[in-house]
Design brief:
Structural class: alpha/beta
Strand content: 25-35%
Number of domains: 1
CATH topology: Rossmann fold
Distance between the termini: 24 Å
Shape: globular
Radius of gyration: 19 Å
């Protein structure tokens, strides 16, 4: 039996937040901005809204979440700070209005042209993925998007308080198996905990199946991060994951999902989407592409 080696961190220097100017997008924005501010490298955070015409762009941008206002409210910059204060935190902010009737097409076009390391999306809770991911695109788009996506379900407890900017990152649940390779999911768990400087974060490695089939992992030693193994012998994988997420307060679930064409297709109708629908917390899904 071989050992799976887990890299110590994932870099997220380009973060993209699609927004429909509603509350789901605002929650996604808060998590993305707080994460961007915690990353020690320079980070580009882009807010993108799809729709409207040339005459609407200025008004739409004004309605997008306000970066300086949030950073001031969180105490990361002083009240009344100039625009340059955001840059001094290592943040570059872009606001984009894409004139397109197809949100999926527009967002994937943007990703293809500029690249992205992390996509942060607000979802509709038990109604599933946001409307702009509601249709299949596998027959029209065959692009490899290798970026993990952080889903913030409506009604779930987020790990960022929108008002204060306070972060709660005490327990991250990471389901693991031999296939698909769990490295990116565990890396995401470790990266989330370490990015926020968690003093006592626990990564729970959760395996569904016989105990002797549990993968052997070479786990990185990160200050402030500990590991715990838990498992379920049998039963539905999604039910087991959700039961474990509810058993103890969980701040983040990290998963690996597979797909031949693109990440968004690999999420729809899968175990990952079922977890996103019912998770009590945000879900970080990292794609692994095959063939």
């Amino acid at each position: 039996m071989s050992t799976l080696t887990i890299p110590e961190r994932l870099f997220a220097r380009r973060i993209l937040v699609p927004t429909d100017l509603g509350p789901d997008g605002d929650r996604a924005f808060a998590h993305a901005l707080r994460l961007a501010a915690a990353i020690p490298e320079e980070v580009t955070l882009t807010l993108i809204h799809v729709g409207g015409g040339p005459d609407d762009a200025r008004e739409i941008m004004a309605d997008m979440p306000q970066v300086r206002g949030a950073l001031e409210r969180w105490g990361l910059i002083p009240p009344g700070s100039p625009r340059s204060a955001v840059g001094e935190l290592g943040l570059s902010i872009n606001k984009v209005v894409a004139e397109d009737d197809d949100p999926v097409e527009a967002i994937l076009d943007f990703i293809e042209k500029t690249g992205v390391d992390l996509l942060v999306v607000g979802t509709r809770g038990d109604q599933g993925l946001p409307h702009w991911l509601a249709r299949s695109i596998s027959e029209t788009i065959a692009r490899n998007i290798h970026a993990p996506t952080l889903f913030i379900p409506r009604g779930a407890t987020g790990f960022v308080d929108e008002e204060s900017g306070a972060v709660t990152m005490r327990r991250v649940l990471s389901p693991v198996s031999w296939e698909p390779h769990p490295a990116r999911a565990i890396s995401g768990a470790v990266a989330a905990a370490s990015a926020f400087g968690a003093a006592n974060a626990e990564v729970t490695l959760f395996h569904v199946g016989a105990g002797d089939d549990r993968p052997t992992l070479a786990l990185p030693e990160i200050e402030g991060v500990t590991y715990e193994w838990r498992g379920s012998d049998d039963g539905d994988v999604v039910d087991a994951i959700l039961a474990e997420a509810h058993r103890a307060p969980t701040d983040l679930i990290t998963m690996v999902t597979t797909g031949r064409d693109n990440f968004l297709d690999s999420v729809r109708g899968t175990d990952t989407e079922r977890v996103i629908r019912h998770a009590p917390c945000p879900v970080l899904a990292a794609p692994v592409f095959e063939g």
